[in-house]
Amino acid sequence: MLTEAIPQEIREQLEQKREQMNANTEDANLIGAAAFEAPREDILVDTIIALYLGKNVLLKGPTGSGKTKLAEHVSAIFNQPMHAVNCSTDLDAEALLGFKTLSHDEQGHSQIVFIPGPIMKAMTKGHFLYIDEINMAKPETLSLINGVLDYRRSITNPFTGEVITAHPDFRVVAAINEGYMGTVPLNEALKNRFVTVDIPYLQGEALYKLLKSKSVLHDDKLLRTYVQLSADLVTLIEMGQLPDEAGSIRALLDACDLTAYIPPMRAVARAIADKLEDERERAAVINTAETLF
Length: 293
Ligand SMILES: Nc1ncnc2c1ncn2[C@@H]1O[C@H](COP(=O)(O)OP(=O)(O)OP(=O)(O)O)[C@@H](O)[C@H]1O
Ligand SMILES: [Mg+2]
What we know:
Elements: H1 8-22, H2 41-52, E1 56-61, H3 67-77, E2 82-86, H4 93-97, E3 98-104, E4 110-116, H5 118-125, E5 128-132, H6 139-149, E6 154-156, E7 163-165, E8 171-177, H7 188-191, E9 194-198, H8 204-214, H9 220-238, H10 249-259, H11 264-273, H12 279-290
Parallel strand pairs: 1-8, 1-9, 2-5, 5-8
Antiparallel strand pairs: 3-4, 6-7
Helix pairs in contact: 8-9, 10-11, 11-12
Magnesium ion (MG) binds at residues 67-68, 132, 175.
């Protein structure tokens, strides 16, 4: 799982840690699968090195480029369970940190107990925290997260008053949907706390391998044509003629899967073209596909 490109010292340390961790199966179901195909070797190598050094990593890439897959992949490499939060949903302090509730013990006595949320669990257990769409975090949430990312790595639990300092193995991976064309607003102080890694759409031979292993479509010629379609769409994205989501590998996989049962042009329309807002953009995808299929 670890290539030669990872410095030997780090490889050995990670192997050692993995062996120690194997004894501890608690939360093992939260360890991700190593299924990320790196578009370039440095993407994976630098992410691993930064995390090894205790840095927070921010993954920047368009929708369906494999950011979540990469986070799961490093969770597997470090053999650390990963807790996930998504900032685009209505997150409040309770959803992140936890809440107090009434519980009954065996004698029937009621007592107030604290049910920890994902941040608390990751910090105290030394697990990974995956913060998705971090640019969408509301100001209240941001100030909470800023403290966690700080060199102090601590947070005051407003429900218990307790100051929690993170376990040394605690790591943060965050993601934003930033595409080929623009940038998304992201608080400077927040950005400053991360090492950033750009993730482009997987292309060429590596994409072919991914489609071949993941899709229910097995026709080699068609799979190769989809790889070409993806390259052509990414060119149009780079020229500003298509939005990023037109190049999503998730959508491409959907199109391949559908093509196992319906004609490719219909599959492309359903999986890629028809969800685009603009009529000209839909036409551009269809025209591009028509030159290939
Ligand atoms: N580099 C890659 N390696 C492996 N799988 C990939 C890769 N890129 C895309 N995929 C596939 O595409 C799908 C979408 O990937 P993923 O959910 O990680 O994207 P994402 O960047 O997190 O997207 P979003 O921004 O919409 O959350 C996955 O199910 C995966 O199968
Ligand atoms: Mg994702």
